[in-house]
């Protein structure tokens, strides 16, 4: 197995263009498990851990541009203010060791329907920055990035450079059901982001369909019927939960049944909207 170790972004893009079959490795918390269990035997590993351009985040053009290699620990410590949904989801990932090495870039690269960063990225309206040596930068909205179980819109010669996330303008929450409280892959998960300035609520469903996805009809319902100055109407809340549940298309597997997941998505949708709405009204009153 070849081991490629670029030290600049340009070298990394050149290596991927010259050897598109090489497998990028950032924190290695997915890749090394797959290699150790013989799930895959790459002809070449492309180690991105020495590429400084991937290691930082910045505010650029009104968006938070999070480098693909920024580990969860730093998102939790440094980005809880602008990206509360992503930070809350990051706190639920694995253990401290996994959060020290694992990255959002790796979560996106793996494109597992159960990845915890996906629902908050969808709810916030994030955009993935991908790049190839020969075709340059491509901006892919998160909603178009996920293409199937562990399949993404990335081309073989592309790498993820960063993810651009609008800073929160309202409350955001993430909720995850697991078989225990820590070190657990989501049975299913849900994220919500209020965008009061736009009169809109963003959603993200995790681990309850072949890909992470938004609950579009539920979002449309709230955009049409929410009164942003009033307490939540219980009938609207119930209908929101039902539409979120209806947007899920889960399977039965070892972690849970499809029926349980549909039910849990409805519960989490109602719960997270209630939490967020209470925060929203509290901020208005303050
Ligand atoms: C014990 C344990 C617990 C875990 N718990 C959770 C959990 O609770 N929630 C959760 O979501 N995940 C969990 N994971 C999975 C994993 O930690 C996450 O998916 C993490 O985000 C992967 O990041 P990484 O940097 O380690 O990725 P890597 O393993 O380095 O890479 C993951 C994938 O992304 C690709 N990739 C990496 N960087 C790039 C790039 N820049 N461009 C293109 N492709 C790229 C790789 O080729 C690979 O396919 C767990 C893993 C372990 C071992």
UniProtKB/TrEMBL annotation:
Keywords: FAD, Flavoprotein, Oxidoreductase
Keyword Oxidoreductase: yes
Pfam families, alphabetized: CO_deh_flav_C (PF03450), FAD_binding_5 (PF00941)
Chain intervals for the UniProt region annotation (Disordered): 94-116
Keyword DNA damage: no
Gene3D superfamilies assigned to the protein according to its UniProt record, in alphabetical order: 3.30.465.10, CO dehydrogenase flavoprotein, C-terminal domain, Uridine Diphospho-n-acetylenolpyruvylglucosamine Reductase, domain 2
Origin: domain of life: Bacteria
InterPro entries, alphabetized: CO_DH_flav_C, CO_DH_flav_C_dom_sf, Diverse_Substr_Oxidored, FAD-bd_PCMH, FAD-bd_PCMH-like_sf, FAD-bd_PCMH_sub1, FAD-bd_PCMH_sub2, Mopterin_DH_FAD-bd
GO MF terms, alphabetically ordered: FAD binding; oxidoreductase activity
Domain FAD-binding PCMH-type: 1-170
Official protein name in the record: Xanthine dehydrogenase family protein subunit M
Provenance organism: Nonomuraea zeae
